[in-house]
Design goal:
Layout lengths: L10 H7 L19 H7 L4 H5 L2 H14 L5 E2 L6 H5 L5 E3 L3 E3 L22 H14 L5 E6 L1 H10 L7 H9 L1 H25 L3 E6 L7 H7 L1 H17 L7 E5 L6 H5 L5 E3 L6 H7 L6 E6 L8 H15 L4 E5 L9 H12 L4
Parallel strand pairs: 1-4, 4-5, 5-6, 6-7, 7-8, 8-9
Antiparallel strand pairs: 2-3
Helix pairs in contact: 4-6, 6-9, 7-8, 7-9, 8-9, 9-11, 14-15
Length: 354
């Protein structure tokens, strides 16, 4: 059992539990990454997946934004596509393109996925988490994360990113049994992967369903929500069995505003909201639900002049309110974002009296 330094800043954990912290907590999706000059310098000597798969390198990149900014959480540097890699698929990160899986999944090669030992092959993520917890010295909590089953399924079948996910969605309509088989397989891996991250020292978890916006409500109720519910329930149960404290879990189903109340019934302590929903709509849809909201500043707002950005952030906070709220962007930060804009965001959030 790891013994870590005591936590000094628990704002995010308090907000996730429904308690009122001393200041509104704020972090930024993709905060350890390409918008930081120090990261781009680091990347000159290391490939993307080399960083992911080396505990010391992943720890160093995770800490970069923590050294620069007064953030309220760190998130381990990794990628959602390490799971397909662990299942035996080739994943390449190509400059200007993004992730590429040169041999996409088909119904014919579905049974060739290497399920046995997949989580063991991801132990480098756990090693990075443990090292980072020690290096953080209790400054802020550390997020672990995973892609959601549907989002991983999409990448595996499409062979990379897609604006339509038409190949993956074809499975849902034409091959429902194979779709459920794949989603069940991924769900079981994700559960054990997230439990491993908590064992390694993760204090809060986020599940990214980045491609939820490409489904409709009927499809998401069939192919999304049941697996997300199982992840939440079984991660909690397995942590109990291991006599580990449960950790808050965040679900970020980008674009799935068509079923926000249904998401709130899955058991996740926090729901991430993208920038397409107005705060008052979110609060209305979630009225009476026992859930914290995270989000939802448009990432492009960080291109605004300092005064305008501060106004947008203040207005967002005023509309969301200070109860059960974690400030974040409505999606990941873009690579050409001015680093000073993040500083303006953080200063504005932390200056609000709650």
């Amino acid at each position: 059992m790891n013994t870590f330094p005591p936590l000094k800043n628990d704002r995010i954990l308090r907000a996730a539990r429904g308690e009122l912290p001393d200041k509104l907590p704020v972090w930024v999706m993709r905060q350890a990454g390409r918008y930081l000059p120090e990261f781009m310098e680091f990347r000159k000597n290391h490939s993307f997946f080399e960083i992911c798969q080396n505990a010391e390198l992943a720890c160093e990149v995770t800490l970069m934004p923590i050294r620069r900014y007064d953030l309220d959480a760190a998130i381990i540097f990794s990628d959602i596509l390490v799971i397909p890699q662990a299942l035996g698929m080739t994943v390449e990160m190509k400059a200007g393109i993004g992730p590429v899986l040169p041999d996409p999944l088909t119904t014919e090669n579905l049974n060739e996925l290497k399920i046995d030992g997949a989580v063991e092959r991801l132990k480098y993520v756990g090693e990075a988490i443990t090292l980072t917890r020690h290096k953080l010295e209790g400054k802020v909590p550390l997020f672990g994360f995973s892609g959601a089953p549907w989002t991983l399924m999409g990448y595996m079948i499409e062979g990379g990113g897609s604006k339509t996910l038409s190949k993956a969605k074809k499975w849902l309509y034409a091959h429902p049994d194979a779709s459920h088989k794949l989603l069940e397989l991924l769900t079981n891996i994700i559960i054990d992967y997230l439990v491993m991250q908590v064992e390694a020292g993760a204090q809060i978890l986020q599940v990214f369903d980045s491609n939820a916006d490409l489904l409709n409500k009927e499809l998401y109720i069939t192919y999304g929500l049941p697996y997300l519910r199982k992840i939440k329930q079984l991660v909690h149960l397995k942590l109990q069995e291991k006599k580990l404290e449960p950790v808050p879990m965040v679900l970020f189903a980008k674009g799935a505003h068509y079923c926000l109340p249904e998401q709130a019934d899955l058991g996740y302590e926090v729901l991430g909201i993208d920038w397409t929903l107005e705060p008052e709509v979110v609060r209305r849809l979630l009225k009476g639900k026992n859930v914290t909201v995270q989000g939802n500043l448009d990432p492009c707002a960080l291109y605004a002049p300092k005064e305008e950005l501060a106004r947008l952030v203040q207005n967002m906070i005023k509309q969301f309110g200070s109860q059960r709220y974690i400030v974040n962007l409505g999606h990941g930060i873009y690579p050409d974002m001015p680093p000073d804009s993040v500083q303006t965001l953080l200063e504005t959030v932390h200056s609000v009296n709650i």
